[in-house]
Write a structure and sequence with these properties.
Blueprint: H1 19-28, H2 32-37, H3 41-44, H4 51-57, H5 76-89, H6 91-109, H7 118-127, E1 131-134, E2 149-153, E3 159-168, E4 176-184, E5 191-199, E6 205-208, E7 222-231, E8 236-237, H8 247-277, H9 283-308, H10 314-342, H11 344-349, H12 351-360, H13 370-381
């Protein structure tokens, strides 16, 4: 069935809730909102859905690539508005976009220190290439800085990569993989972190089923395996600092926290939108939903605007984490109240409601967890250096 999801506004008014976010989306990716709205939610969330194809047709792969390099040059504040808006129509597409855009944004961060990634960014924007992320999984007992794969230097130059990433969003649609790897130190003692850029069609890349949940399956989060994958020297980037996040990694980390938080906030906003459009609950109850959602979004925008001024370092890193967890808590409150206001029959009879409820809560599963960084943040607030676990 290919019925459109039509808005139901009371008294003929166009609702202002989410209006600004959708206007920003329309500015950068015209017609995307309308095209997604034409597809029923449970269809746009299935594996093999047309969301990523539509995104590429509208040149969305270059959203964060600077305009001078062929992209659309969206700012952090604009990007989170776009992600929130997309997530209200397709949570899976928003999460897939998060992994792509965070990876692209990390490549953009390198531009502050040289022209290392200019050609690659031009290729991404010009060819509408999708970039998958092979970074932290948030594995119990390990740091999110611990690489998932190993890169071994080869006689005559280049590296051989082995390892796997699970889950890896965009596993089937990616054109490029950016991955955290460990490289043996030159002195033979220990290893160094690095970021590898690997073409998706490189020999030795295979995919295995991994994602068993029915939620967010459209994000293509399967296991990606690399066996003796060859890359050239220029496809590997080393951080300036080994013990903690260097400037580029910190910038990428900030982008990830912003985009993933805004995306899941968008999923919760979709539930709240149903409450508003159907006039469920009383004025005070609906206002409380708006207070939680807009307060969370405003906090994200505060971090985004600080990033736009060039702010980096421990202070904004801690702020981004505190805001991310505040967003997480707001989502928990909103999803429970909105689902309750929509009623038991809506939950039972309408798959959209139960699906959005489950999808919105997945923010808690993305690294780092509150428990894993609680000690580091507490120490930082008490005057110690910040260490990302």
């Amino acid at each position: 069935m290919n019925r459109s999801r039509k808005k139901q506004f009371s008294e003929g008014y166009v609702m202002n809730f989410l209006k600004r976010d959708r206007e920003t989306l329309e500015k950068f990716l015209p017609t995307l909102d309308a095209k997604l709205q034409e597809i029923p939610l449970m269809e746009i969330e299935k594996p093999g859905n047309p969301g990523l194809t539509i995104l590429r047709e509208l040149e969305g792969a270059g959203l964060l690539v600077p305009a001078e390099h062929g992209g659309k040059g969206a700012t952090p504040a604009e990007a989170i508005q776009i992600h929130r808006a997309v997530a209200t129509r397709s949570p899976s597409l928003a999460i897939a976009m998060t992994m792509h855009n965070f990876s692209v944004a990390t490549l953009v961060e390198y531009l502050f220190y040289g022209d290392y990634t200019v050609e690659l960014l031009q290729q991404i924007a010009g060819g509408q290439l999708l970039v998958a992320s092979g970074f932290a999984e948030g594995r119990t007992g390990t740091s999110i800085l611990d690489p998932l794969m190993k890169a071994t230097p080869q006689d005559g130059g280049g590296y051989r990569i082995n390892g796997s990433k699970k889950p890896c969003s965009l596993s089937n649609s990616m054109h490029i993989l950016t991955a955290s790897v460990s490289v043996p130190s030159n002195n033979g003692n220990g290893s160094r972190r690095a970021v590898a850029v690997v073409p998706a069609d490189a020999e030795g890349i295979t995919r295995k089923p991994f994602w068993s949940s029915t939620v967010l399956r459209g994000a293509e989060s399967e296991e990606l395996c690399l066996t003796d994958v060859q890359i050239a020297d220029e496809q590997l980037f080393f951080p300036e600092v080994e013990e903690s996040l260097d400037a580029v990694e910190a910038g990428g980390f900030l982008w990830f926290e912003l985009l993933v938080s805004a995306s899941y906030l968008g999923v919760a906003s979709a539930l709240a939108e149903k409450v508003f459009t159907h006039g469920r609950g009383d004025i005070a109850e609906r206002m409380q939903l708006a207070i939680d959602l807009e307060g969370a979004m405003t906090s994200l925008e505060g971090v985004a605007r600080a990033m736009q001024t060039g702010e980096r370092g421990e202070g904004i890193l801690v702020q981004s984490l505190l805001v991310r967890f505040a967003v997480q808590q707001a989502i928990e409150r909103v999803t429970v109240r909105a689902t309750e206001l929509l009623g038991g029959m809506a939950f039972i009879k309408t798959p959209d409601v139960s699906y959005l409820y489950a999808a919105a809560r997945a923010l808690a599963f993305h690294p780092p967890s509150r428990l894993s960084v609680a000690s580091a943040i507490d120490g930082y607030l008490m005057g110690k250096p910040m260490q990302v676990a």
